[in-house]
Amino acid sequence: MLGVIPIFWSIKKEDKIISSSLLFASGVMITISFLSLIPEAYSLFLENEVVFPSLLFTAIFVVVGIIFSSKISSVIEEKLSYNYLYRLGIITVIALIFHNIPEGITTFLSSNHDLSLGLSLSFGIALHNIPEGLSVAIPIYYATKSRKKAIFYTFISGFSEALGALFAYLFLSPFITSFVLGIILAMAAGIMIHISFYELMPTAFKYPLSWRSFFFFIIGAMIMFITLSI
Fold first, then answer.
1. 3-class SS string, 159-213
2. CB neighbour list of residue 167: distance below 8 Å, 6 or more residues apart
3. pLDDT by residue (tens digit) across 85-100?
4. What single-letter DSSP state applies at residue 209?
5. Is 80 in contact with 87 (CB distance < 8 Å)?
6. Which residue has the higher pLDDT, 78 or 101?
7. 200 three-class SS
8. CA dist., res. 111 & res. 122, Å (int)
9. Which of 26, 18, 130 is nearest to 85 (CA)?
């Protein structure tokens, strides 16, 4: 929820903050996908298969995630074609929910097995969820001019992590295998890759860009790299 703080700042050059935040969000999502989700999905598949089938399963479900994201995007576009920035915010929320639910499941299972591991994992995840919150809050706020909506959607995307833990506690623990988690994470990576390259970046380029704007992509990537390392 700390990611909503910038919506309370007074900013004159609205176009620049929108384009910069979209590039920041794409840096965040691309880094999550290639440095966290895809390697983690591959390692989970590897627990059940040898190397080649694991690579194949990872690639297949990343592509499934991309196809799923494009279908969701087209459905939302029909509903919200009048406001592409708002549509982009909603798509980002959906992507982060797909990312956060398995994170919540993983954190719950890790904490249940080893509390110290769960605490350290929770700390790292909490850090990298802050820029994720910003990626949701900025587009929603500037699309709707409503801080309440920006806070609400940011809360939904973040709370999905706790929801994943709750589902794991109540229902899913006996059914969650490494293979199932691998599928979910690979699809989440595909969704984020599609959103970054086909939604966030093209939308950012619709606004006037300065050379400084591209630093926000690097900043987003660097922040995620550091928090994932932690």
1. HHHHHHHHHHHHHHCCCCCHHHHHHHHHHHHHHHHHHHHHHHHHHHCCCCCCCCH
2. 101, 104, 105
3. 788 888 888 888 888 8
4. -
5. yes
6. 101
7. helix
8. 9
9. 18
The C-alpha atoms of residue 203 and residue 80 are separated, in whole angstroms, by 15
Q: For residue 44, give the 3-state DSSP assignment.
A: helix
Backbone φ/ψ region at 49: left (φ over 0), alpha (ψ -120 to 50), beta: beta
Residues 29, 200 contacting (CB under 8 angstroms): yes
pTM confidence score = 0.78
CA dihedral 79, 87, 76, 155 (to 10 degrees): -110
In total, the chain counts a number of residues equal to 230
Domain ranges of the chain: 31-229
Cβ atoms within 10 Å, residue 217: 23
Question: Which residue's structure tokens are 């992509």?
Answer: 217
